[in-house]
Each structure stands twice: as C-alpha cells, then as structure tokens.
Amino acid sequence: MASFEKGIHTATVQEGSNLQFGLGGFDYITDTTALSDFVYVAVQAVGGDAVVTLTSEIGDSLTSHTIPEEGWRFGPFSSVQRVSGGNIIAYRYVEA
C-alpha cells in the first residue's frame, strides 16, 4: 500500500496517472462495513445521496459527510464507509 504522509506531490509520474484514473479497480459498497484493505483515490455516490465516513491519508477526514448523487470526493483515503443513503463506488489506488 502506498503512503502519502509527505503529500501526493511525492508520487511518481506513473503513480500520479494511476491515482488520476483509479486503475486499481473499485469496490461497489451497499452496506455499512468500513473498508480499509486498500488506499482509495476517489469515492462516488450512486443511486441517491450517500452519507459516508472517509479517513484521509493526508488531509482532514470526513465523518457522516453527505455526497450528493453522482458527486465525487477525492482522496487518498485509508478507510471508506457508507453510513446511509445511496450506494458508493470506492476507486482503489494501484502501485506502479
């Protein structure tokens, strides 16, 4: 797993491309189990507004935060949890 303790600007060009496009795949989340097996680069709400808790790798974390339907939040996040509302797609970081 990548660490962004020094900031995303420390990523290589390849890592930056992977971060931008989420080439590590995704998790489609319909329940309230927190996921922390990967670093997630982005989260999208689908099927309605989603209330989420996102633990940031380099900035402020968001607790019980509402993402409007089709809205996005960009990480990196070390943990992603759908609290209620619409489902979410969490895009995984992939190491180069």
Concise description?
With 96 residues, the chain is mainly beta.
Walk me through the structure:
The protein is mainly β and 96 residues long. It has a single domain (8-92), classed as Sandwich (Jelly Rolls), CATH 2.60.120. 9% of the residues lie in helices and 50% in strands. It has one helix at 13-21, and strands spanning 26-29, 40-56, 62-67, 72-92. The protein is globular and about 35 Å long. The N and C termini lie close together (11 Å). The relative contact order is 0.33. The model has no long low-confidence stretch (mean pLDDT 86).
Quickly name the level 1 CATH class.
Mainly Beta
Strand content: over 45%
Supply the number of helical segments: 1
Number of strands: 4
Mean pLDDT: 86
Cα shape: globular
Helices and strands, in order, run as HEEEE
Number of domains: 1
What structural category arises from helix and sheet content?
Answer: mainly beta
**Considering DSSP H and I runs of 4 or more, what fraction of the residues is helical?**
under 10%
According to CATH, what is the topology? Jelly Rolls
Low-confidence stretches: none
The biggest beta sheet is recorded as: 4 strands, antiparallel
Name of the CATH architecture? Sandwich
This entry's quaternary arrangement is: single chain
Rounded Rg: 13 Å
Widest sheet: strand ordering: 1-4-2-3
